Amino acid sequence: MPSALPDGEPVPDDGALPAHALAGAAGRPLGFYLHVPYCATRCGYCDFNTYTATELRGTGGVLASRDNYAGTLVDEVRLARKVLGDDPREVRTVFVGGGTPTLLAADDLVRMLGAIRDEFGLAADAEVTTEANPESVGPAYLAALREGGFNRISFGMQSARQHVLKVLDRTHTPGRPEACVAEARAAGFEHVNLDLIYGTPGESDDDWRASLDAALGAGPDHVSAYALIVEEGTQLARRIRRGEIPTTDDDVHADRYLIAEETLSAAGFAWYEVSNWATSEAGRCLHNELYWRGADWWGAGPGAHSHVGGVRWWNVKHPGAYAAALASGRSPGAGRELLTEEDRRVERILLELRLREGVPLDLLREEGLAASRRALSEGLLEQGPYETGRAVLTLRGRLLADAVVRDLVD
Amino acid sequence: MPATPDNVPEPSRTDPALIRNFCIIAHIDHGKSTLADRMLQLTGVVEQRQMRAQYLDRMDIERERGITIKSQAVRLPWAPTHEPGNTHILNMIDTPGHVDFTYEVSRSLAACEGTILLVDAAQGIEAQTLANLYLAMENDLTIIPVLNKIDLPAAQPEKFAEELANLVGCDPDDVLKVSAKTGLGVEALLDRVVQEIPAPVGVADAPARAMIFDSVYDSYRGVVTYVRVIDGQLNKRERIRMMSTGATHELLEIGTNSPEMLPADGLGVGEVGYLITGVKDVRQSKVGDTVTSQSKGAEEPLGGYKEPKPMVFSGLYPLDGSDYPELREALDKLQLNDAALVYEPETSAALGFGFRVGFLGLLHLDVIRERLEREFGLDLIATAPNVVYRVLMEDGTEHTVTNPSEFPEGKLAEVYEPMVRATILAPTEFIGAIMELCQTRRGTLLGMDYLSEDRVEIRYTLPLAEIVFDFFDQLKSKTRGYASLDYEPTGEQSSSLVKVDILLHGDKVDAFSAITHKEQAYAYGVRLVGKLKELIPRQSFEVPVQAAIGSRVIARETIRAIRKDVLAKCYGGDISRKRKLLEKQKEGKKRMKMVGSVEVPQEAFIAVLSSDDSAGSGKGKK
User: How many separate domains does chain A show?
Assistant: First the structure.
């Protein structure tokens, strides 16, 4: 979650949604994202909404501390229940992200999940994921999560190389994430993801291959691989600007992506989103697919974004302000936008084109269709799916996805 | 406070012996307008309380830049201190101060018998002033040398009096010393005008002949034409004839300026005033033309008339293509008041619809561009200024090229380019730098004279094309701003010129075509190709950028195909931001110009075509 919030109209104090947002809700899956805005240290590349202090004070002296954070978040889950009213849906996915969720006690995470179960009910086959820092979990912690209902876990591995981790300010030692995978399996986690970052300044092609090999060796069923984005305002951006660290050329990013695709597919993984690979359909992250397919989700926690039936809104960023709003019974929503039909069409194109299933061509207008034919002839779209009415990116097309989107939305 | 004297002779009944017609030759900032203001006050035609600085300069841009583009004439009654009872009529004719308007200056001078040579006592004479002084001498005008701003601490009246005396051929003691600001010495100057400048001489009973030395469009009154009567008399309500076109008009009004327009019965020999005929376009009332009466008019026009001839051309395009009709309307309006402005529609594959506009010179171009942008609120792209080429083909046909992209293909016999005679005035320490600059611009030294111990006049023949590029900026930077430049056209010369085309992905970009000397073609090609490589974003395919002469490529760069254009992450919180980014990128894409299949940002055109850029690269070449 990027730290800068978009502009939007205000959210009503009670968080109420316009009636149309809930129309037809029963046909859409519902998920929950729970944000934990705490980290032990801030990594130089990170611009997420996270804080290293354990206690932050909000307006009116309301204390937002790591220790009572779970309680505050449960308050928002109860608010969600009120706002969604008699929405009968059970929750299909829960995803706890951060920050570093595992800085909280396992019991806290389980309690937060429990609130969702109590208020909404969890579907029998619900996917329940938490992100985890390799240094902050061990067998006992993992067992407690599993017992509490978590069935999927995602470790931030980033790289297998010490010098790369150092540029990223990651504190774990190489080898620890791989060990975590084994511990998670032992604890009974069915689905395990490793997050990797490529294109860090100072990383070589071989460093990247070594990271992929190490990740695959640990036996996850899901791998996410992201090009390092140097966000404005981060420590890393400042160091690059001062010339202390070189930037990575886009062509290098392209090369690394090709290496990832080659290595992962050779190991039996298949891409299902531009930056995500899984060993099977079942290994895909269902929660993320809710984002990409325009489903409904409630994002709880400071700065978290939500989407229900064409209404997007986002919470205040600061944990103190967040806690203060909930303590006084107000919605922590900072702003929202009501999407127009055209907004939703454009969003579908820009999100779904990133997926293996691609975009149905009947979503395109005449100019967009003409552009899709050009993209096809330039080898950016797959021939086979195109003939069945879908625009699906080729490998080269995936690297140019944003450019293709710009043409298809015309 | 002096008031208007008694017994002021009226227009049409003024004895020529009492008339003095004069102008003021001065460099920008040397105080001409302030001196004129002071004269208006001393002769009582403008009361103190109505006085505003630089009363005669009307256009905002003139006032801001401190320059005068359009001239005017004011009738000043003056009772000289040596014969107070004998009120004279002084017609002060304000001359344009810039090199681009030499022809207009020459017509203003032709309306006078004498001139005040006004020079800043802290700076000495400048090249354009010198050029106009020579012009005045050729017209046999009586010259009154005057040093202004003698109240300034930095003034060096002795030194510059010497310089002026050498130029005019008088004694340094004869150089008047005034301060237009404080008024010191201005009365004495008016007396000198009466004493030294000859009265006009003409044939009173001959058919009327009056020379137009200016015409100005006024949105209320139509065209106001300023004339100096040489022979005969023009009377109110008669019909007049323009001798260059034969067109006749009714005289709706005739009069003099003091300084507001004041109707009169007519204008007689030697008198200066204005005519209003109701025409709406200054091209129907051309500077230099002769006005006569329709019945029993003159047979022979006065000499010296020339059609204004544009010397420099540039393509003007609206940044936003939908502003094209506004640009046309704005040019139409400006042309009402500017007979020298010519334009015709032009289509550029790269820039869309625009106009090829002809100007008298670079200042003229700058002023027009600035007025279009400021007064009409237009955002423009202007192509690099170019001159007019005459191309003779081996098959005997001849082409006049005003746009480099229209340079003919095929077998050329000769290419002629316009030449100028340039005069540069500068402190002697810069002789080396100036000669080096002129040499690299294909100049031929004509001669050099010392104006004083430490100031020199250098004369060169140069191709006009070399001057329109960035010559003046270079000259200023190499002489720390001390050099001044004047030039006049001196015909044409056959040169080894070639057209350099710039190709993007094999497609010619017409806006970047240039005609250069054979030896400079390579440098131009390398510079532009390098620049474009920096400015054009990578496309989804590899784009060669080439400079070519005909089919021969002389420089090449490659813009590598973009391989990655995708953001790695797109999760719940990124979606709004990403959609907004997409909207912004779409807007940006709209502002791209398509050259063949290549998207070129407008900024790239502006950066390559702007003169800032050419100045910068000129320095880089050294």
Answer: 2
Nearest to A50 by CA among A36, A63, A64, A70: A36
Q: How far is CA A381 from the centre of its chain?
A: 26
Question: Which pLDDT tens digit goes with each residue over A13-36?
Answer: 999 999 899 988 888 999 999 999
Residue B400 backbone phi and psi in degrees, to 5? -105, 120
What does the alpha-carbon distance between residue B95 and residue B105 come to, in Å, rounded to a whole number?
Answer: 6
Q: What is the pLDDT of residues B369-381, one digit of tens each?
A: 888 988 899 988 8
Which range of residues forms the domain containing residue A395? 342-410
| Residues A255/A261, Cβ–Cβ less than 8 Å | no
Q: Which of residues 520-579 of B touch A (CB under 8 A)?
A: 540-541, 560, 562-579
CB contact under 8 A, B564 and A288: no
| pTM beyond 0.80, yes or no | no
Residue A315 lies in a domain: no
Phi, psi at B46, each rounded to 5°: -125, 125
**Domains of chain B in sequence order:** 16-196 (3.40.50.300), 209-293 (2.40.30.10), 312-383 (3.30.70.870), 390-495 (3.30.70.240), 498-621 (3.30.70.2570)
pLDDT band (50, 70, 90) for residue B53: low
Instruction: In whole angstroms, give the CA distance from residue B140 to residue B478.
Output: 36
Tell me the backbone φ, ψ of residue B458, rounded to 5 degrees.
Answer: -115, 135
Residue % of chain B over a pLDDT of 90: 51
pLDDT of residue B336: 80
Residue B34, marked binder:
yes
Last residue of a domain, one of A276, A292, A308: A292
- CB-nearest to A305 from B560, B568, B572 is B572
B265 is in an annotated binding site: no
Residues in chain A within 8 Å Cβ distance of B586: 406, 409
Which residues between 330 and 349 in chain B have a beta carbon less than 8 angstroms from any beta carbon of chain A? none
Q: CATH number of the domain at A206, please.
A: 3.80.30.20
B1 falls in which pLDDT band (50, 70, 90)? very low
According to the model, what pLDDT value does residue B218 have?
A: 80
Q: In angstroms, how far is CA B352 from the centroid of its own chain?
A: 28
DSSP letter at B237?
T
Same domain, A182 and A281: yes
Residue pair A162/A176 in contact (Cβ under 8 Å)? The answer is no
Tokens of B202: 């003409």
This complex has an ipTM of 0.90
For residues A54 and A146, give the distance between their C-alpha atoms in angstroms, rounded to a whole number.
26
* Domain-located, residue A107: yes
Question: How far apart, in Å, are the Cα atoms of B230 and each of A30, A53, B242, B342?
Answer: 96, 94, 15, 30
